[in-house]
Amino acid sequence: QQQVKQSPQSLIVQKGGIPIINCAYENTAFDYFPWYQQFPGKGPALLIAIRPDVSEKKEGRFTISFNKSAKQFSLHIMDSQPGDSATYFCAASKAAGNKLTFGGGTRVLVKP
Amino acid sequence: EAQVTQNPRYLITVTGKKLTVTCSQNMNHEYMSWYRQDPGLGLRQIYYSMNVEVTDKGDVPEGYKVSRKEKRNFPLILESPSPNQTSLYFCASRRQGRVVGNQPQHFGDGTRLSIL
């Protein structure tokens, strides 16, 4: 069973819109939650990450919101641009652990 | 330039014909890992290695082998490939920090395998 569930599978927004991607996890031992961005023909690259001691983290136009009690976290892309069109993966792991568990991915298309 | 290099990038082969996908990193990272990416399933870890001669199973190790004889190389071996191993494969590496959260993984650009 998937320990990290990601939704939606795909998303289309107009330029300037705010795509929101949601993830839910089951394992309460997870305490590191990164997001990876993947462009066609390339490997995933770390975008932003959060630990459960904070409820929100911003880096540029990307914001992670974290709800520990609900075991959910989400990625918001503010003022989205066509260059943000990519597949986004949430992930989770335990501190000092050796496994990174990924969600199923969300393909985001930002129309000009 | 820091990078993880995979070869080949594309391969079409037939059931049962042994193949090896190579992975090399130039960042002197201790930790290396192999993933497969399938639609709707995200990336699933196949094997990982904490350092030379230290390897362990990930979530989907069946049908795969790995070896870590040198720090920079971590080849993935399919001894008898089957059609259900048709997938997009990624190698990744990172420093083996005390806390994994501080050490982002660097991914190669992928190898697309088709097994007929």
Structure described in brief:
The complex is a heterodimer of chains A (112) and B (116). Chain A is mostly beta strands. Chain A is built from no helices and eleven strands.
Describe the structure.
By secondary structure, chain A is mainly β. Chain A is built from no helices and 11 strands. In chain A, the strands form 2 sheets. In chain A, strands 2, 4, 5, 9, 10 and 11 form a 6-stranded mixed β-sheet that branches. A 5-stranded antiparallel β-sheet of chain A has the order 1-3-8-7-6, with no helix packed on it. Chain A is globular and about 40 Å long. In chain B, 0% of the residues lie in helices and 49% in strands. In chain B, a hairpin with a 3-residue loop joins strand 4 (31-38) and strand 5. Chain B has strands at 4-7, 10-13, 19-25, 31-38, 42-51, 54-57, 65-66, 76-78, 87-94, 106-107, 111-115. With 116 residues, chain B is an all-beta fold. In chain B, the strands form 2 sheets. In chain B, strands 2, 4, 5, 6, 9, 10 and 11 form a 7-stranded mixed β-sheet that branches. Chains A and B meet through strand 5 and strand 10 of A and strand 4 and strand 5 of B.
Entry keywords:
heterodimer; A: 112 residues; mainly beta; six-stranded mixed β-sheet; five-stranded antiparallel β-sheet; 0% helix; globular; B: 116 residues; seven-stranded mixed β-sheet; 11 strands
Shape by Cα distribution of chain A: globular
Order of helices and strands of chain A: EEEEEEEEEEE
Structural class of chain A: mainly beta
Largest sheet of chain A: 6 strands, mixed
